[in-house]
Write a structure and sequence with these properties.
Blueprint lengths: L3 E2 L10 H13 L9 H20 L7 E4 L2 H19 L4 E5 L4 H12 L3 E5 L9 H7 L4 E5 L13 H10 L3 E5 L18 E5 L10 E5 L25 H16 L1 H18 L7 E3 L10 E6 L8 H10 L2 E2 L15 H5 L4 H5 L1 E5 L6 H18 L2
Parallel strand pairs: 1-11, 3-4, 3-5, 5-6, 6-7
Antiparallel strand pairs: 2-8, 7-8, 9-10, 10-12
Amino acid sequence: MKPIYLDYSSTTPIAEEVQIIMNKNLNDSFGNPSSIHSFGRISKVLIEEARQTIASTIDAESSEIIFTSGGTESDNHSLIGTAFASKRKSGKNHFIISSIEHHAVIHSAEYLKSLGFEYSVVNVTSTGLIDLEKLKKLIKPETFLISVMYVNNEVGTIQNISEIGKICKESRILFHTDAVQAYGKIKISVKELPIDLMSITAHKIYGPKGVGAIYIRKGTEIDSLIHGGSQERGKRAGTENLPLIVGFAEASKLAYSKLEIENIRIANLKKELLILIKPISEVIIQNSFVGNSVPNIVNISFDSTKINIDGEALLLNLDLEGFALSSGSACSSGSVQASHVLLAMGRDEKTALATLRISIGRYTTIEELKEFVSALLLIVERIKK
């Protein structure tokens, strides 16, 4: 049997159109974009065209897009760069994150804490949504930033970014959102949303790994973390990786050109999947709630009060049968620890450990989902204790 990939939220295969444009630029456009000769000028033009393409997908100005190595760097830079700038200019040293952030945000927060900064954590409801009233109560006079992810990478919850942004604006606080799982799947307009900084990446939208970007609203104070040349308007030193950047732009263009029709197709696949898993509906908890989650993520936990399932054994058996999926965030895999996201949503540790994240993508078919569920039902019967 051909292996079936159901882990599109971890990463995606590179689209053929993206591969073609990357290969062309690997061969033809090798000049350093900072050089003044014709080879350099050609590369510079291509980078600026890519920057404009990505900016246009979120209604930003091209000068507000800074290229990075990916979502993790974008999150690190957004938190640490604004923290350093805030401390230096205003002395403010407090920020707020949510309890379900990606580890790139959580570990950046811990790093800043080791340097003397303070941060608070706002909790979520059982559906994974931020409690806005609790968020307001955490704001202090010395708060300079709130960071809340747009779409959660494990359960797919879509946060009320507009309302969170309004809270920030009213308190004159910067607002950062990790939009790695939202970009290319949701329409985002920074003209309509009060977002100051936003992290995005290419490899979640059928682009290459190793490239991402930060949207930085004009006038936002942020320090550089990588020092050297004056690339990226002095915000991020180092010679730009042209093939990755043009690949990112092409992937962005493709994602937004197909957004509506692809979301409808994936939403229909999700509906079919939920019907297919009905035979085990009495022993599972659905962690991805219809109405406030993206259609491409289905996260289910086996209720520890009704069935005893070893989550790692379940994943291993599925892998042996040729199915690739996750028990949560890819960045948490490899260690037998309950998902901090599910624990924050109120799941007990045993239930959280017996979790599957099925993430559907551009190449998923209904036949693949039927094969997956058939295998899942057999494996559950085999390994339940």
